[in-house]
Structure formats: structure tokens, C-alpha cells
Amino acid sequence: MVPAPAARRMAAPRQRLALGLLCMLLAASAAAGEGGHGVPRSAKRAAVASAVAGSGAGNRTAAAPATVGKRDEHAQGRKRAAAGPAAGRKRDDAGKPRRRGDRAPAPAPGGAVAPLGNTTTPAGSKLWLPALPLKTWGRYIVDQRGQRVKLRCVAWSGGQDVWMVPGGLHRQKLWKIASMITWGGFNCVRLHFSVEMVVRSVKGSAWVQQKAVAANPELYNKGPLEVLDAVIKALSDVGLMVIIDNHTSDAMWCCSGFDYNGLWYTDKWSEADWLHAWDVIARRYAWTPAVIGVGLRNEPRPTIVGGAARSPMWGAGGPGLDLALALEKAGGAVLSHRQSYLVFASGITAARDLIAARLRPLVLRAGWPHGAHVNNQLVYEAHEYFMWYGPLANAMQYEPFKLAMDASWGWVVLTNTAPVWLGEFGVQPWDVHGGWWQSMKRYIKERDLDWSYWLLDGDQGPSRNMNARDDLGLLNHSWDGWEHPEMIEELKQI
């Protein structure tokens, strides 16, 4: 062992040398401008470490720079990895610690999941995608690390309408709408399409009117699917997940009992057209991780086909009415392109009734009917609205409401069968203190549901009135701010 006085004498020249090197680096950094971008960060850290270590014992000064340098190499490796999937990133662009509030520890073998933290994001911040793709674990959706991912989505309508593109692109920049969604505390977006939009796009007979994307000149002369590509990219760039939903067959506003679109086929668009549309969509986004799943058909309900009234059934009624069979066919078309899509399946009676799924659960395959079974990708979807209760909505009491929901579709999560995604629910802002909304909020929290709020849009769209707002829409008419900020706060509570 070197005596202490001798060690200090040996360390002094090394310390002076390291300090001199540090000064040279700092001078070079200043000359390079921009805060030292011309000097590798690892070299700076090594110099600092050498200078600090030089003041210690002489038999440890040589090892310190190498150790610090190795750590820096690992850090740089992590940063390089972060340039790929966003899930690998640990810090945001401002250097602040990454928020993980929308993810919880993995479910325990018994199915317990730790409580979720706050999922709101500060204004101007960027979300981080989880470790994709997602899958199911009993009643929960989890990422590739087995951590809970709770979907807090908002519906961005328009892709199913006559303009065939998401709304608001005529008034506001795409990137700004995407940013507004993150500021609202959402982590995913439900986008819609019609069978007509996809089939006509493939045939080259669909085009986007310039007025539909007037605020986004880069989208001029694009087809509907190309605009959808751009929208999905803008959403994924700010860390939002996407669920693509088949909302209608015809390009139109939805929904009613007299719109002829209650089944997965119409007089104009056949079941084969519907399956073809899903084949196109699933293949197109098979390599887009942010597209986490697909909603096979929106609100199956009684309708008129061939001049006759028809009503979908679950596990009965034959090929023309058996919704469960039709959903399995479409699921096979989707999963044949990527088995890691989450498949969202709605029940009958406008997605309010999953009772028959107790006896006839869906079976997913990668290609119907003989493809391999695909497990842990099925999510059941339910919808619930205040207007379905008429004047009784605001007088709703929680206990009977809870019993009705549990009997219709809540049993799916209570029995740990699969996740349930409340794919649509909404209320007029002036009714937030009413019985239905308070019961709905409480039920979502008590059952710990994944959800998607209806509606983001700041106007009624081209099929109704472009100059009027939708009472359920969150954005203002300019699509650049919240019409009712109190609704955003209401949603952040769940």
C-alpha cells in the first residue's frame, strides 16, 4: 500500500492533467457553439470523473474514468434504442422523468392489479407508448412487460362520413388536433371508417375534396386511406394509441334504426365487402405498432335489408343474423395479417347486450374457419348513453344501474373472462350532475373499465351541419380548445 502522503503526491499530477483536459474540452465546446454539441458527452463525463477521482486515493484514480465511461456507453445505447419504438424511452424531450401513470404493475397470478395512478399529462407534454403490442390477461389489457395498460380513449369521428376523412382537418392543423388530445389526458383514439370508403379507395373511385382538408395543404390530392395514414402517424408521433373502428357500411353519419346500416351488410355492401375492407385495413397497418386494435362493427342493431326488418342475434339465426359468427369471420381476416391486434367485439342491441356470450363466447382464429386459435387478444365492447333512458336519466339511482350493467355486460370483467372496453359513452355538459352521469362515472371506477368517450369533434360534420356543434363534442368550433373544460376535468376523474 502506498503511504497517504505519497499517494497524494502521485495523485496531484493526474488531477492537474485531468483538470487541464476538462478546460480544453470546455473551451472546444464553447468554440463549437450550441452549448458544446461538438464535444461527445462521454468525453466530458470521463474528464469530470477523472478530475474528481484524482482527489481520492492513488490506487483508485485509474479505475474511475473507465467505469464512468462504460456507464455512459450504456446510457447512449439506451438513447439509441429509444430512437426506435417509443416504449423504450425513459425521459421526455425536456429531460423530465417519464410519466408512467397510465400503466400499473403486472397482474398477480390471482388476477389482482395495483391501483392506477394519475394519467393526465401536462399541457404541451408528449405521451409514451407502452411496450407494444398489447394482449389480454384475464379481464385486463397488458403490455409486453405484463404491465396494465388502461385505455382512456376519445372518438374522433368523420372517417365514416361522406367526406371520408376525420373531422376538423378543414379548420385546424392535424398536429394541433393530435396535441389537443394528449392535453386532454387521453392515451388513445378511436378512428372510424366505412366499408364504402375502403372499397372505393382500393378501386380508385374515392377521393378527398380539398375543402375537407383545407387547413392541411399537405393532404391535398390524397386519397381517404392516405389521409388516414397521415392521421395515424400524427397520433403515434405524440404517443397516442389508435383503435380503428368499422362504423358503417355506407359513408354516412350513424346511427339510427332506419339508416339501413344496423347489420354488417346492407343491400349495397355485402358481407364479402365488409370482410374485404377488414382485409385491406389489417394488412395496411400490420406493421404500425400504434394501431393496437380494431373494432369489428359498431353498434349491431335491428335494421332493414331487402325490404324486410332484420335483427342481429348472438349464436343463432343463421349466417345472415348470427353476429357471433360474423365477428369470428372478421376477426379471422384481421388476425391473418397480425395476430397481435386486439380485437374489439360489440354485442347486440347497439352494443348493450353481451348476455348470450356467457354460453357462446367468441373464438378467434388467424384466418377463418381453419386458422390457428389466437388467445389473449379478445376484448368485448359495450356502449352506454344517457339518452337511452329518456326523462329518467337524471333521476337514475346507482344500485339499479349497477345491477343492469352487471347483468348485460359487466359480468365479463366480474368473472375475469376478458376485458370490457366501454367503447362509447357521453353526456351533455349541463347534465354532469344528473343521476346517469354520476352512476356511469362510479361504475367505470368501481369496475376499473377501459373506455372511450364520445365525442372529440368540434362540429356536426358534413352529413349534418358543419356550422353547428355536437352537444357531446369536447372541442370548440375552431378545433383548437375545449368548449367545456369542465368535461375534461370530469373525464380525468375516471
Report on the structure:
The chain folds into 2 domains: about 1-60; about 135-490, TIM Barrel. Helices cover about 35% and strands about 15% of the residues. The protein is built from 12 helices and 14 strands. The chain has helices spanning about 5-30, 40-55, 65-80, 175-185, 195-205, 225-235, 270-285, 325-335, 350, 400-415, 435-445, 485-490; strands spanning about 105, 135, 140, 150, 150-155, 190-195, 240-250, 290-295, 305, 310, 340-345, 380-385, 420-425, 450-455. The strands form 4 sheets. It has an 8-stranded parallel barrel with strand order 5-6-7-8-11-12-13-14, surrounded by 4 helices. Strands 1-4 form a two-stranded antiparallel ribbon. Helix 1 (about 5-30) packs antiparallel against helix 2, helix 7 packs parallel to helix 8 (about 325-335) and helix 10 runs parallel beside helix 11. The longest helix has 29 residues, at about 5-30. The radius of gyration is 27 Å and the shape is globular. About 40% of the residues are buried. Residues about 1-125 have low confidence and may be disordered.
Fill in the keyword field for this structure.
two-stranded antiparallel ribbon; 13% strand; single chain; TIM Barrel; disordered N terminus; 14 strands; 2 domains; 494 residues; globular; Glycoside hydrolase; alpha/beta; hydrolase activity, hydrolyzing O-glycosyl compounds; 8-stranded parallel barrel
